[in-house]
Amino acid sequence: MEKNEIVEPLTKIMIDILNEAHLKKDDIFVLGCSTSEITGGKIGKNPSQEIGEWVVSTLMNLLSSQGICLAVQGCEHLNRALVVEKEVALKNQWEIVEVLPSLFAGGACSVAAFKYFKEPVEVEKVTAQAGIDIGDTFIGMHIKHVQVPIRPSIKELGNAHVTAVRSRPKFIGGPRASYRNG
Question: Which residues are the signal sequence here (predicted)?
Answer without folding.
Answer: none
